[in-house]
Specification:
- The chain has 340 residues and is an all-alpha fold.
- The protein has 14 helices and 2 strands, in the order αααββααααααααααα.
- The longest helix is centred in the middle third of the chain and has 37 residues.
- Strands 1-2 form a two-stranded antiparallel ribbon.
- α5 packs parallel to α8 and α5 crosses α13.
Length: 340
């Protein structure tokens, strides 16, 4: 055996440290699922632009009492059916002039409107400012849409999750109840509610509360049935974790992305539903305004004063398109199989 005590220290030397290349380094900071989804979302320019537009619309709508230049329900019949007049914009149709018998006529001068008084979007048949009514009407439509999304996130998620976790006869009964409720047309349901309640926001919200969350409940149930049979859920059940904790700690977090996407798609659907009801006259009651009532008023005078219908129609299209583009962006961002 070699006697290591007799080896001189001069024969030992430290190994030189080689410079570490960038290829050998390992990134210390790993992205979470939410951070990775946000990174994907930022790359979708259409979704980011839609978010900016939606933020501006929501701010303007919910600050309507501060931003509206006039009382939305105040009537001024001498100033009825005025065209838009945007100060400093020399474009016929947007400068107070309106075509009458082939000639452009200054309607503000004919109505003796003061020089400093402008109606950016014009007035309706009762002389009410369309811009003010549009701000208040957009707030009502967005409120109903956000209530529909809240119902999706509460009733729909809890109902679907409970049905999937219980299973068996309870699941069968709950699903048959959903099928019966889904078979009732929403329009018939609203008309029946009008026999009990007056037309307005309350009737629309009740109609949404009865039927709007059903697709969310089906979606959550299907995802929960798939997740409850995975290995980590079975392991949690084997060690004695309660079903409630399994549902809210193991199953629900793993389908939050699908729930958020579905809720985002439900918002434009609710806006369209409210607009349709108000347009046919069973939605918001007079004199309250919504996008649907503005479209209904503009439709009656479309041949003579087309801007009264075009303006709320354009706002409705922008809101619907922005919500759908944002929901599409979220769906792509939450999809782990998406290629950068």
């Amino acid at each position: 055996m070699t006697d290591f005590a007799k080896i001189p220290d001069s024969l030992f030397r430290f190994r030189e440290k080689k410079p570490t290349s960038e290829a050998d380094t390992v990134a210390a900071n790993q992205l979470t699922f939410a951070q990775d989804a946000f990174r994907r979302l930022k790359k979708n320019k259409a979704a980011v632009f839609s978010v900016v537009i939606l933020i501006l619309i929501v701010i303007c709508a919910f600050l309507a009492p501060l931003l509206a230049p006039y009382n939305p329900n105040a009537q001024n019949v001498p100033f009825a059916n005025l065209p838009p007049r945007i100060f400093g914009l020399p474009i016929n149709g947007l400068n107070g002039f309106e075509k009458f018998r082939g000639e452009w006529v200054d309607q503000y001068a004919l109505a003796n409107v003061p020089a400093g008084q402008n109606y950016l979007f014009g007035t309706d048949a009762f002389g009410r400012d369309i811009l003010s009514r549009l701000l208040y009407g957009t707030r009502i439509s967005l409120t109903i849409a956000f209530v529909a999304a809240l119902l999706d996130l509460t009733i729909g998620v809890l109902y679907g999750l409970f049905s999937a976790m219980k299973g068996g006869m309870t699941d069968n009964i709950m699903q048959r109840v959903l099928e019966v409720m889904n078979g009732i047309p929403s329009l018939v349901l609203v008309v029946l509610l009008l026999l009990v309640f007056h037309p307005g926001m309350l009737s629309i919200i009740f109609a949404l509360a009865i039927s709007s969350w059903i697709p969310m409940a089906w979606l959550v149930r299907a995802q929960a049935l798939r997740l409850k049979n995975l290995e980590y859920v079975q392991a949690a059940r084997a060690i004695g974790v309660s079903p409630v904790k399994i549902a809210f700690s193991h199953i629900l977090p793993n389908m939050l992305s699908i729930i958020v996407i579905r809720a985002m798609f439900s918002i434009p659907s609710a806006i369209f539903f409210e607009t349709f009801l108000s347009f046919i006259g069973v939605g918001m009651k007079i004199p309250n305004a919504s996008i649907g009532t503005l479209l209904n008023d503009g439709y009656k005078v479309f041949r003579i004063h087309p801007t009264q219908m075009w303006i709320p129609a354009i706002v409705l299209c922008i809101i619907m398109l922005a919500f759908n583009l944002f929901a599409d962006g979220l769906r792509d961002a939450f999809d782990p199989k998406m290629k950068d």
